[in-house]
Design a protein that fits this description.
Elements: E1 3-7, H1 11-22, E2 26-31, H2 57-61, H3 76-80, H4 82-96, E3 102-103, E4 109-112, E5 118-121, E6 123-124, E7 138-144, H5 152-161, E8 171-177, H6 190-196, H7 200-210, E9 218-223, H8 233-241, E10 245-248, H9 255-270, E11 274-277, E12 280-287, E13 290-298, E14 301-306, E15 309-312, E16 322-324, E17 330-332, E18 384-386, H10 396-399, H11 402-418
Parallel strand pairs: 1-2, 1-15, 2-11, 7-8, 7-9, 9-10, 15-18
Antiparallel strand pairs: 3-6, 4-5, 12-13, 13-14, 16-17
């Protein structure tokens, strides 16, 4: 039985560990923290902008520059390919089930954000999709005096100013309720609201408070607080209210992101994957071009974990997997892999409102099997695979491509390890 160490517990690391374990590998999942899914919007972005807003993400990925790369260097999608992205997105949807993720990899939803902007995303939680922005749609955006992270007047005002490509717009109005979910607390978090609304009595009280304010034809938008645990809470609330309801994700920590993370981590535990939480990968032992052990800094001291394969899913700068020293040089911290663009002189420019910082396209170059490459294009380690945000070449936040890159590269990497042919 082959053994694999997966480094990182975000969407790429969790799904890679699960897929390899389902195929019979002995898997150790190593992470210094809880992973980035709980900071996400709780949906799956494949490609939102390229640079204009994208309606059919896989169709765009199949075209230039993704199929052939660009003069600045290959985008991850030019190496991963649309087929692997589709397979990865469908695998994630299957793991989570239709109670948590719905949609078509070929088509984006366009959903309201917590500031009333339009957000293209590929798969969304069922509790979000009634918010799909369409010409002539009418919204009632509901907020709470005790939830300071969501301002319904701001959301409704920006939605009303939204100009749609099809020469139309929407009509939105705001409602702020005094709804105390914990006695005496005047500044509750979204998580506190979400846990309180799992109580059927609290849910019923909220529905009865909102119902008299709804006008005919309106869709009710709430901050994403309709429960953390289990599927179906949104459906029950919508039935109580008697009107279409949708959730709007807030800034981290994200209740929808927690739902996805909880689903995947439960699967990790069910599969008896060894989960080393609070353990940071700090280096490797090698035998030629193969890694034999991953070195880890754990609460109990240093550890050496033997392995046949390594999947590096540590993320980018946001997770500390990539870091920059005082001389402007970028490093990959866990395995000390070569970083493309890590010594360019113009990684950061001074125009805050200008183009994206080149720094965010820096990372590790990979081949079609997700093996890491050095600056000459040679494979660094034959048994290492790099997935997700560590891969170079994408402006993931600007493009809204992070989850698509993570899941597509996960499919490529695990297929390569398992001997799959593509």
């Amino acid at each position: 039985m082959s053994s694999t160490v997966v480094i990182g517990a975000g969407i790429a690391g969790l799904t890679a560990a699960i897929r390899l374990r389902e195929a019979g590998h002995q898997v150790t999942l190593m992470s210094k923290g809880i992973g980035g899914l709980q900071l996400s919007q709780g949906s799956i972005d494949v490609l939102g902008y390229a640079p204009d807003r994208v309606e059919n993400p896989l169709e765009v990925i199949r075209k230039d520059p993704f199929e052939k790369g660009s003069e600045e260097g290959d985008h991850p999608y030019s190496v991963i390919g649309a087929d692997a992205v589709r397979e990865g997105v469908e695998y994630m949807a299957e793991l989570c089930g239709p109670g948590l993720l719905v949609g078509d990899p070929e088509k984006n939803y366009v959903l309201p954000t917590a500031i009333g902007a339009m957000r293209p995303t590929c798969l969304a939680q069922p509790s979000m999709v009634n918010g799909q922005i369409e010409n002539g749609k009418r919204y009632l955006i509901v907020g709470f005096k005790q939830l300071k992270d969501f301002y319904p007047e701001f959301v409704a005002g920006n939605l009303n100013r939204t100009k749609l490509e099809w020469d139309g717009g929407v009509d939105a109005r705001a409602l702020t309720l005094d709804f105390e979910v914990r006695p005496g607390e005047i500044d509750s978090s979204a998580l506190v609201f979400a846990r309180a609304l799992e109580n059927p009595v609290v849910m019923r009280n909220l529905a009865e408070m909102i119902r008299p304010h709804i006008e005919k034809g309106e869709v009710v938008g709430l901050p994403a607080v309709l429960g953390v645990n289990g599927d179906g809470i949104w459906e029950r609330f919508q039935k109580l209210l008697g009107h279409p309801v949708f959730e709007i994700p807030l800034q981290p920590p994200s209740v929808p992101g927690m739902r996805l993370n909880q689903k995947l981590t439960h699967r990790v535990k069910d599969l008896r994957i060894r989960f080393m939480l609070g353990s940071e990968a700090t280096g490797v032992k090698t035998d030629g071009k193969r890694v034999t052990h991953v070195l880890a800094d754990t609460p109990g001291g240093g550890r050496e974990v033997a392995c046949d394969y390594v999947v590096l899913a540590g993320g980018g700068f946001e997770s500390g997997a990539l870091t920059m020293d005082s001389y402007g040089k970028v490093f990959e911290r866990a395995l000390d892999l070569p970083v493309t663009g890590g010594e360019l002189p113009d990684l950061i420019h001074g125009d805050y409102w200008g183009d994206q910082q080149a720094l965010f396209s820096v990372g590790v170059a990979v081949d079609a099997d997700m093996k890491p490459l050095d600056r000459s294009g040679n494979v660094v380690y034959d048994n290492v695979r790099v997935v997700g945000g560590t891969i170079a070449g994408a402006m993931r936040w600007q493009e809204k491509s992070g989850e698509g890159i993570a899941l597509g590269s996960m499919i490529r990497a695990t297929d390569s390890i398992l001997g799959g042919n593509r």
